[in-house]
Design goal:
Elements (H helix, E strand, L loop, with lengths): L4 E3 L8 H25 L2 H14 L6 H51 L2 H6 L2 H43 L1 H7 L3 H11 L3 H24 L1 H6 L3 H36 L2 H19 L3 H23 L1 H18 L5 E3 L10 E11 L2 E11 L4 E6 L5 H6 L9 E6 L2 E2 L5 H7 E4 L10 H5 L8 H10 L3 H5 L17 H15 L3 E5 L7 H15 L3 E5 L11 E6 L2 E6 L1 H7 L2 H30 L1
Parallel strand pairs: 5-10, 5-11, 8-9, 9-10
Antiparallel strand pairs: 1-2, 3-4, 3-6, 6-7, 11-12
The structure holds adenosine-5'-triphosphate.
The site of adenosine-5'-triphosphate has 12 residues, from helix 4 and helix 14.
Length: 602
């Protein structure tokens, strides 16, 4: 790779922690206010104890004068506690919203920068999950968890501090049932993270089974396999619910025991009976036992709030991991000194490539495609044809060697410029939501209506477009419908308009019937004129006239020449040709047989 290739500008690999940094002070302020709120909410409890103390004091001359400041302190404590908590949560929610907006921008930026090959490996569902669902899951982590955590520590600690100030034995009494809860809780939480991950995976299987069912519904019905598809879904649901039940049942039992340990009557019973013993045996004031009981009842509430948020917090952590992973995907490297290709010739120079380090897919490929020539890539399935073609528009970058376009390494051409030079027509045609005209103009937004019509005529799709009442303004999927072959011709018209000098064709007629294939071939013959074309071919009869045929086998270029030359050599290509023709013959014989059978039956 050239020295000056840089990761895309402003593309330091951001991570979640780094993106959260600007909002951290806001979160901290929220946490401090949350802690203050928790601290001040202790005041009413202390006030109630002091009120009780006043009522029980026999020699107060004016009780009203004495209780007014205490009542005032209780009300002020309540109000302050509420205000601090609300403002604290308001700040963390603001931080969350700002961070989400920033993260969304960063993720969308990242999606625009990852190599195109990344999209071949990730489903749209996975991308949507990262950009939408995972961001939603982060909400608890930023907006709630830390405030709740602060309150769960501050309030019990302050309460215990107050009780210790009264008498250390009271503090001990207040937390007497807590160890039961903590030990059971620690037991419940063993392996919680892994179990959640497993449940996540099981749930993903349920989702995949639904998607498979919906996507394949036509095939499933045609083959009367609705029952089987239902069975897959049911199996996934049953596995999920079995695992969930197995995990959750002991937890529910344990939770019942622990909730009992923290329930108000049990805590009051322990505090009051322990308190009574202390009053009798140590001389502690009965009123201080009231303080213990109030604080002891209050402590579990904060802990329960925290534990109830634990699942949300675990989900948020998993989501944060996935977001971090997406943010960490290496962007397509771009050059700081872009060069302009000179011409439309292609050269693969000692090209090697591997998707994973341990398994080379292409090895030392040397292939020249002269400007304006057509090169067909042939070879058995898995030989590496698509991978080699994808190196030209940089779906992936070579591991070794270089791909040169117009004498310039494709990595030295600015990506936008590269896409202007290299067009591709893939087997799976993608039509976007919008009008026919919008779809055609994708490659050239300023194309005139006449340009659109010329391209559509050349691609043999003009007549079909005119069959819609709205013509070129028909909305695809609403007013306009295209069969596979028609969509293929529309995408050829779109590529014609884009007018890229180099074309990658991934067997555009692979799934077409003979009539449609003839029309696509006609459209293609227009498209390939005066362009450098690299075509991945499976139907060998369509490429007998091309300038050169490159034969790949096991990731190596084993032969290159014209159809005649390669047949004369009698090696790999000759064998492929023989196999192809006998397969074609068999297919024809079978379809002939089918026609005869249908003739007889009618
Ligand atoms: N995204 C990927 N990650 C890992 N391996 C891959 C990936 N895409 C393809 N491969 C592997 O690389 C090898 C070459 O695949 P490629 O699709 O280039 O072959 P092909 O000759 O085009 O095959 P076909 O004619 O069946 O389309 C295969 O072994 C394939 O399993």
């Amino acid at each position: 790779m050239a020295e000056h290739i840089l990761p895309n500008s402003n593309l330091r690999k951001p991570n979640l922690r780094e993106l959260m940094r600007p909002f951290r002070s806001l979160v901290w302020l929220g946490v401090v206010l949350g802690a203050c709120g928790a601290l001040t909410s202790l005041i009413p409890f202390i006030g109630i104890v002091e009120l009780a103390r006043l009522f029980l004091t026999p020699d107060i001359s004016d009780i009203a004068d004495a209780i007014i400041p205490v009542v005032f302190a209780i009300v002020a404590g309540l109000a302050m506690g509420w205000i601090c908590t609300v403002i604290g949560l308001w700040l963390t929610h603001i931080a969350d919203q700002r961070m989400q907006a920033e993260l969304r921008r960063a993720l969308v930026r990242k999606l625009g920068q990852v190599p195109l090959g990344w999209y071949s490996e990730h489903t749209s569902g996975a991308v949507r999950k990262a950009v939408q669902d995972d961001l939603d899951d982060l909400h608890h982590m930023v907006a709630h968890h830390q405030v709740e955590l602060a309150a769960a520590f501050v309030l019990p600690l302050a309460g215990l501090g107050y009780l210790s100030w009264l008498d250390w034995r009271l503090a001990l009494l207040a937390v007497l049932t807590l160890p039961v809860y903590l030990v059971s809780y620690a037991w419940m939480m063993r392996g919680f993270g892994e179990k959640m991950q497993q449940l996540d995976k099981d749930f993903a299987r349920v989702s995949a089974a639904i998607v498979e069912f919906v996507h394949g519904i036509a095939v499933v019905k045609v083959f009367s396999q609705t029952g089987r598809a239902h069975k897959n879904y049911q199996q996934a649901v049953e596995d999920f619910s079995r695992r969930y039940t197995g995990w959750v049942t002991p937890l529910v039992r344990l939770e019942a025991v622990t909730s009992l340990a923290l329930s108000v009557p049990v805590i009051m019973l322990v505090s009051l009976s322990g308190g009574a013993w202390l009053v009798v045996n140590t001389g502690i004031q009965p009123i201080d036992v009231l303080a213990t009981t109030l604080i002891a009842v209050m402590i579990p509430q904060t802990i329960l709030t925290l534990s109830q948020g634990l699942t949300a917090q675990q989900k948020a952590k998993a989501a944060a991991g996935r977001i971090d992973q997406l943010l960490g995907v290496a962007p397509l490297a771009v050059t700081s000194e872009p060069k302009e290709p000179k011409g439309a010739g292609l050269l693969f120079k000692q090209v090697s490539f591997a998707y994973t380090q341990d398994r080379p897919v292409l090895s030392d490929i040397n292939l020249r495609c002269r400007p304006g020539s057509i090169t067909a890539l042939v070879g058995s399935s898995g030989a590496g044809k698509s991978t080699l073609a994808k190196l030209v528009p940089r779906f992936y970058d070579v591991t070794q060697g270089a791909v040169l376009l117009g004498g310039v390494d494709v990595r030295d051409i600015a990506p936008d410029n590269l896409y202007r030079h290299v067009g591709f027509v893939l087997q799976e045609t993608q039509l976007l939501a919008g009008t026919v005209a919008d779809n055609l103009r994708l490659g050239r937004p300023d194309a005139s209506d006449q340009d659109l019509e010329d391209a559509a005529r050349s691609a043999c799709i003009h007549e079909h477009i005119l069959s819609f009442p709205q013509g070129y303004q028909a909305v695809i999927g609403k007013d306009a419908f295209f069969s596979g072959g028609e969509a293929q011709r529309l995408s050829i018209a779109r590529t014609l308009l884009a007018d890229a000098p180099v074309l990658i064709l991934d067997e555009a007629t692979a799934h077409a019937d003979p009539e449609s294939e003839a029309q696509i071939q006609q459209a293609l013959s227009c498209l390939v004129r005066n362009r450098t074309v690299l075509v991945i071919a499976h139907k060998l009869h369509t490429i007998t006239g091309v300038d050169q045929i490159a034969v790949l086998d096991g990731g190596r270029l084993v032969e290159c020449g014209s159809h005649r030359q390669l047949l004369a050599e009698g090696k790999h290509y000759a064998e492929l040709w023989r196999l192809y023709n006998s397969a074609e013959k068999n297919e024809k014989a079978m379809s002939g047989e089918a026609q005869v059978t249908s003739g007889v039956s009618s």
